[in-house]
Amino acid sequence: MMSFLFSLLMLIPLSFLNKFWLVQWMMFIFSYFYIFNYSAFILGYYNISFFLGLDILSFSLILLSYWICSLMILASKNLYKNNNYYPLFLVVLLILMLSLFMTFSSLNLFIFYLFFEISLIPTLILIIGWGYQPERLEAGVYLLFYTLFMSLPMMVMIFYLSEKLNYLEFMFLNKNLVSIFMYFCINLVFFVKIPMYLVHLWLPKAHVEAPVSGSMILAGIMLKLGGYGLLRFMVLFKSFNLNLNIFILCFSLFGGFLVSLICIRQSDMKSLIAYSSVSHMSLVLSGIMTLNFWGLWGSLIMMLAHGLCSSGLFCLANIFYERTHSRSLYLNKGLLNMIPNLSLLMFLLVSSNMAAPPSLNLVSEIMLINSIVSFNFLNMIFLSFLSFFSAVYSLFLYSFSQHGIFYSGIYFLFNGLICEYLLLLLHWLPLNILFLKMELMLM
């Protein structure tokens, strides 16, 4: 574990030597080395090194972080071409990757909290430093204050647990807490991060103002911090939380249904994809709240699938933006006639977004539907609405932008670059091939 940590640290001086593509290549190499690090037949924690260790949950989310961060550099080729402070961009990205690595692999509760909060700062710098619009400052303030305000009660609870237990290691957390106040103190920050309906307003704002790399890391990894935290901390409330979870589960499904309706009303491509993230993550939250085998594994697989799929869709929205200089669905029309290759890739990613086979989204949705319906049969009502409307807004996004009469005011179109096809394929291929090895996830 420490070897991967130091390898990331050593990339920081390399970033200042104008080696943009070398850093990206090294990140891919580290991700491949990390895959070989997987010990499939060891249960529980393994690779324990100093205060870091892995289980299957940590392993899969760190691998996703490596993959998305590598693709972020590939997607930000314009920063390199325009000489737009790209060494600083690489340093911010590597610090973000370091903080995510420490968050997901930490065995200690306080170190987890520390790096959970540190990961907010590079994301904020990405949005404010390389965002497109003047409103990015407001989006950054939303992101900062939503997370910080909700995380302070969690810090108080960590000190309380330290006082009561005299240790903060995850693997020994067996305290049985029975207070609703404590439940919300610890979990509110994760409800904001995931994000749950009513505390989701920071996400569409941050996505719309962020550069493509910021959108990728927000959709691909930052939302998964909330799911990871909930999966880790639910063990503290195992005696009473099923009585409370049914309310959160029903509210989350209802919120996901409302957000799906909001998606159909969007005219901005990035805003539509951002709201669809809220809808998908409401399913993840519902699966975690069931606290059964299918729910927990379905939530993990949905997080991995959504990280790849949503990140790919944001890349596509950015590729169209670079050509048409607009994210509006009213101006991006008839693109199928002009750039059919990219339209094919968009169709593949959109079909994965609506859980078409053979994507990981389908596997996770089947597991989550089993889990949520077995928890309470009446949940089937909103689950059916969620599944139906996810297909509706996905097809709306595809058909509205690719079909129709081409807007004559836009004439600056050129075909896809090789690195753009590579970027989109590296999102789509893992998403549709990983289902072949599902037995590794269900040991």
Automatic annotation (TrEMBL):
Keywords: Electron transport, Membrane, Mitochondrion, NAD, Respiratory chain, Translocase, Transmembrane, Transmembrane helix, Transport, Ubiquinone. It is a multi-pass membrane protein. Residues 106-390 form the NADH:quinone oxidoreductase/Mrp antiporter transmembrane domain. Core subunit of the mitochondrial membrane respiratory chain NADH dehydrogenase (Complex I) which catalyzes electron transfer from NADH through the respiratory chain, using ubiquinone as an electron acceptor. Essential for the catalytic activity and assembly of complex I. Belongs to the complex I subunit 4 family. One of its GO terms (molecular function) is ubiquinone binding. The keyword Chaperone does not apply. GO terms for biological process: ATP synthesis coupled electron transport; electron transport coupled proton transport. InterPro entries: NADH4_N (IPR000260), NADH_UbQ_OxRdtase (IPR003918), ND/Mrp_TM (IPR001750). GO terms for cellular component: mitochondrial membrane. The lineage of its organism: Eukaryota, Metazoa, Ecdysozoa, Arthropoda, Hexapoda. This is NADH-ubiquinone oxidoreductase chain 4. Its EC number is 7.1.1.2. The chain crosses the membrane at residues 20-42, 48-73, 85-104, 110-132, 139-160, 180-203, 215-234, 246-265, 272-294, 300-321, 342-360, 380-400, 412-435. It is an enzyme of class 7 (translocase). Residues 1-103 form the NADH:ubiquinone oxidoreductase chain 4 N-terminal domain. It catalyses: a ubiquinone + NADH + 5 H(+)(in) = a ubiquinol + NAD(+) + 4 H(+)(out). It is found in: Mitochondrion membrane.
